[in-house]
Task: inverse folding
């Protein structure tokens, strides 16, 4: 019998892809879902669905019983560090042998940005737990350009960010998940922090051009002032401290602090990471007007 692997965040973008890739490798995991209504969508990719609110300590302790390896993905919320500490403590007490944590690029920088500090707090809890670990620190996800940041493209043919003309290197969530699956199943990556990126750094102007080429329609990146970006987040209902955390991230990108390119995907998986051009071709429908048959992003 193989190791019992628990995937948290199983219904999300990265967690769901980790589930698919583990299943494809003949190692279907156990999925952790927030509520029972999410379970049916997961059952084909796992051996069991466990239900737990990550803010419920008793439910978390029950969820990690009998688990050998944990893929740890916490929600992007202001209390994620507290949630993470609870999960790490429960895992250590349950005898989990390995934690593979989804972190963020630059989590080790001092003083860093809020998003990085929150993840580093969780990383330290894992280091102090005595459980073997691997940290995955991906760059910003390409998928956000087909949803969160590119949500205005289908209707307006534009997306708006306060990032100037600096180059950024993004990662494809499918590549991040491939690294996660390998690290969960294969030995030799313990005690390592892997910074995961795509193969090249591009400006948002270049990203817009690739989106346009793939979707066969004009796509324009509009570099907006920081005040306008903040107002947009406020209008969308993004609360503090998440609002300021996003502004910090964009300020970092604007100064060139998100242009690092690494070879982690190829070193771990043996395959080159997907380029943004690859991603754009695969997701061209996300940027087409709904009337033309392309679904608008969720």
Result:
């Amino acid at each position: 019998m193989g190791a019992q692997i628990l995937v948290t965040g199983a219904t999300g973008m990265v967690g769901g892809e980790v589930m698919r890739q583990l299943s494809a490798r003949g190692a279907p995991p156990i999925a952790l879902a927030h509520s029972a209504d999410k379970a049916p969508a997961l059952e084909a990719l796992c051996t069991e669905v466990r239900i737990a609110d990550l803010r419920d300590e008793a439910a978390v302790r029950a969820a990690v019983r009998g688990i050998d390896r944990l893929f740890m993905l916490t929600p992007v919320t202001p209390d994620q560090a507290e949630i993470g500490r609870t999960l790490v403590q429960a895992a250590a007490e349950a005898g989990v042998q390995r934690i593979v944590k989804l972190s963020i690029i630059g989590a080790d920088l001092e003083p860093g940005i809020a998003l990085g500090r929150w993840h580093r707090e969780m990383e330290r809890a894992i280091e102090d737990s005595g459980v073997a670990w691997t940290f995955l620190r991906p760059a910003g996800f390409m998928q956000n350009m087909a949803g969160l940041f590119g949500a205005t493209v289908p209707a307006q043919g534009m997306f708006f960010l306060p990032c100037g003309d600096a180059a950024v290197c993004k990662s494809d969530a499918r590549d991040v998940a491939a690294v996660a699956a390998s690290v969960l199943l294969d030995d030799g990556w313990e005690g390592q922090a892997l910074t995961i990126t795509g193969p090249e750094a591009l400006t948002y102007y270049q990203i817009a051009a690739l989106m346009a080429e793939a979707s066969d329609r004009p796509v324009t990146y509009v570099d907006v002032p920081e005040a306008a970006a903040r107002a947009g987040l406020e209008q969308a209902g993004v609360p503090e401290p998440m609002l300021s955390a996003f502004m910090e991230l964009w300020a970092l990108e604007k100064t060139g602090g998100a242009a690092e390119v690494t070879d982690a995907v190829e070193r771990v998986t043996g395959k080159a990471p997907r380029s943004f051009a690859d991603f754009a071709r695969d997701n061209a429908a996300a940027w087409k007007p709904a009337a033309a048959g392309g679904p608008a992003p969720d």
Notes: The longest helix spans residues 114-129. The first strand starts at residue 5 and ends at 7.
